[in-house]
Amino acid sequence: MHITEEYHDKQKITSLSVEDKSKPAIRQNLLSMLVSSLKEEDTDQRGQGITKQELIDNLALLIFAGYETTSTVLSWFTYFVSKRPEVQQKMKDEIRFYCGSAPLTMENIQKLEYVDCVLKETLRLAPTAVAVARQLYVDDTINGISMRKGENLMIAIACLHTDPRNWKLNPNEFLPERFYGSDAPDSKHHPYALLPFGGGPHACAGQDLAHLELKLIMIRLMQSVTFLDASGSNGGHIQHLTVIPKSVAVYIKFDD
């Protein structure tokens, strides 16, 4: 990316690394750990640390994963709830009951179960990732297809999320109620039927942060505005690195 490349060209990464290593660590975060792990030279043969290019690549990944996916999920959220005003009303009622006008805290945020269900359903019906790759560590046969150890396979997340074998309610409809309550039709789905952040040891490292961030923004939106269906918008999607909405529009009405 241009910003990170410019940062590299001006050798700010190197100076930051030297400065960082010369001072005692006051706080640890991902960026400081990446910088402190830089090799002294890109030609370092000891196999320790990362190169400047690897640092740039990781910074670009953090920007993409932390911004692009979150904004895409929120776009889908506004589109889906604009078609379901009763969903917005239930969210507003729950938020008003547990939060009122008091500052948001982790305690009252965790009580918002219906908001959780709306987020979960948004991620189910519109996962940002097209697919997730995995490598077989043993020979296996799936649906009569033989696969060998070391082969790579792609899991089509959107197909998995809408496979009728995995869901009791219509998998192609936006229905947060499928998850709401212990006796909800799809509350006890197979753990690998829903993979918006991947699964297993290689699942998204930032999924908890992303979930909290998305939930906070959804709460703030529902405390201030209502999304209305814009006639003529026909939905659809565009598939790039993330699956983004196509030909989608909503009206925003500020609440009194």
Structural commentary:
- With 256 residues, the chain is of the alpha+beta class.
- The protein has a single domain, classed as Orthogonal Bundle (Cytochrome p450).
- 43% of the residues lie in helices and 12% in strands.
- The protein contains 9 helices and 8 strands.
- Strands 1-4 form a two-stranded antiparallel sheet.
- Helix 4 runs parallel beside helix 9.
- The N terminus is likely disordered.
- It comes from Didymodactylos carnosus.
- One of its GO terms (molecular function) is heme binding.
- This is Cytochrome P450.
- Keywords: Heme, Iron, Metal-binding, Monooxygenase, Oxidoreductase.
- Its cofactor is heme.
Task: Summarize the helices and strands and which ones pair or pack.
Blueprint: H1 2-9, H2 12-22, H3 30-36, H4 52-82, H5 85-98, H6 106-109, H7 113-125, E1 131-135, E2 140-142, E3 145-147, E4 152-156, H8 157-161, H9 207-222, E5 225-229, E6 237-239, E7 243-245, E8 250-254
Antiparallel strand pairs: 1-4, 2-3, 5-8, 6-7
InterPro entries: Cyt_P450, Cyt_P450_CS, Cyt_P450_E_grp-I, Cyt_P450_sf
GO molecular function: heme binding; iron ion binding; monooxygenase activity; oxidoreductase activity, acting on paired donors, with incorporation or reduction of molecular oxygen
Organism: Didymodactylos carnosus
Annotation, overall tally of beta strands: 8
Count of helical regions = 9
- The structural domain count equals 1
CATH superfamily: Cytochrome P450
CATH topology assignment: Cytochrome p450
| Spatial extent as radius of gyration | 22 Å
Q: Give the strand line-up of the largest sheet.
A: 1-4
**How far from one another are the termini?**
42 Å
